[in-house]
Amino acid sequence: MRSRFLRAGILAIIIASAMLTGCGASTGTSAAPTAISQPSAPTATPLPEPVTITFWECWGGATGDFMVEEADRFHEQYPWITVEVSHFSGRGAFREAFALAFESENAPDTFIRGHSFMQMIENGWIQPLDPWLTPEWKARFPEGAFSETRNMWRGETYSFTPFAAPGVSRVLYINEDLFREAGLVDADGDIQTPETWGDLRSMAAQITEAGKGEFYGIGIGIKDPRPMVWWFDLATLAGAPMTPYDYDLRTGKFVYSTHPAFAQIIELLLGMKEDGSVYPHEGTIDDGNIYSFFGQAKFAMFMSGSYHANNLSQDLPDFQNYRIVPVPVPDEGQTGEVPSTPGQGHFFISAQSQHPDEAWLWIDWLASRGFHERLVSNGIGFSIFADLNKPESIPDVHQAQAYEASAAHGVFGPFPPARNPDTALVRPEPVVPDVGDMLIGIYTGQIEDWQQALVDLDAHKQAALEAAIQEVREDGVDVSIEDFIFLDWNPMENYVTKPAE
Questions:
Q1: Same domain for 327 and 193?
Q2: CB 173 within 8 A of CB 304
Q3: Three-class SS of residue 340?
Q4: Range with lowest mean pLDDT among 88-92, 107-111, 294-298, 429-433
Q5: Does residue 36 fall inside a structural domain?
């Protein structure tokens, strides 16, 4: 307990110094009316010694620039603390440099999450925030902001919920000019947007026909397998299993080969390709550049995250005739929503930091409502504080559309670690090829018998899950497949996971 009280005392001195310095205490005196000696004039409390802390991020773009601006603003509030922001070009480069930095004991003081929370816990890379936390601080966050195995472990708190608002990860981007050119307007002249999977295919074909080789209905990137997995996210709208728990949470079984929605998505992808509706240079596209092809009117639609509204605004500011809409639902009626789990923390203090008190002040800054107000007003993202996401606070019309589209189909799904935290220790070995690689193989024709490929995928994933459970059980961890089964889960409704009794 001594270190906790010592830290609190240091922090109190730092904050008091900032307050006194900002007040500009007077150094003048007035003549004394009597010969009684007067106390010397008050002087400003000197600032603490200058400190530089480091912050690593891999967002880049508009978000990276925003973090630099926030570091400058933070320095104005705490002039003895300088935050050096380091950018990395992608998550892969970030992860590699991050691991090497800890290995060489040269880790950044603060950083965003590049690895899973539990991996950082097991590697001893992060330190808890509890020495600085108060009940009032935690109470500022919405319900569900703190969760075991996501930003807490064994009762200690290491971060807080992601700074972005929860919602559906995927939205659909629509080029209004190309839709109009293809005649996809109603009697009032308004754009008709796809509401079902069937609409998506037929509209893509109609746009492609109007394009005559100059533009296409939809863009799909196969350069990176990760975005291909997102197409199976659509299957959850038909009641298929969620991600990251891609087995049926009502049975504990993988159902890629038996739930009809997965086959329907594959048939949708292959159907659009057969129609000639897909921009033909798929191999050059990944999620990092798909928005630029869209902004150049190479295709009329693409599916990705809401963050591309920022990229379009920053890199193609003259391109405005587009809109962002919710992803389409199954033709036969929606029987599911897109479930999400409690968000992992985004901001952490390194276990190797030599300046933890100053690092905490930066983390506290990133958790403040002022930071979140600027996050929204600058068009960077949507706040976890829902009341800040007012239409009048979102400066860009496309950002407002993205917020509405993201909120359209989101629910909270079951979360096994909330019932038994030790389920987080169950880590199945990766299956190769996994979903993304398999979908690319199916799309390119390298996998012809895709029905059998789905059967094999189920078998391999089931074996990996059961082997991982058995492995931790042999280490004395009390976990079973029953911990991963939620018989009362309704995919159309929010689910509150209760701790085991």
A1: yes
A2: yes
A3: strand
A4: 88-92
A5: no
Residues near 82 by beta carbon (within 8 Å), at least 6 away in sequence:
50, 51, 52, 53, 75
Count of positions (residues) in the chain:
501
Q: What is the pLDDT of residues 314-330, one digit of tens each?
A: 899 999 999 999 999 99
Percent of the chain surpassing pLDDT 90: 66
143 pLDDT more than 80: no
When the pLDDT of each residue in the chain is averaged and rounded to a whole number, the result is: 88
447 burial class (0-12, 13-18, 19+ CB within 10 angstroms)? Answer: middle
| CATH number of the domain where residue 262 is located | 3.40.190.10
- Rounded to whole angstroms, how far apart are CA atoms 451 and 434? 15
Q: Which domain holds residue 55?
A: 46-165+345-367
Cα 394 to Cα 181, 372, 389, 404: the distances in Å are: 30, 12, 7, 12
**Cα distance between residue 447 and residue 105, in whole Å:** 46
Could you tell me if residue 125 is inside a domain?
A: yes
Domain count of the fold of the chain? 2
Q: Is residue 464 part of a domain?
A: no
> Do 329 and 183 sit in the same domain of this protein?
yes
Top-confidence residue, 313 or 462: 462
What residues contact 144, with CB distance under 8 A and at least 6 apart? 161, 342, 412
Q: What is the mean predicted confidence (pLDDT) over 386-413?
A: 85
237 and 96 in a single domain? The answer is: no
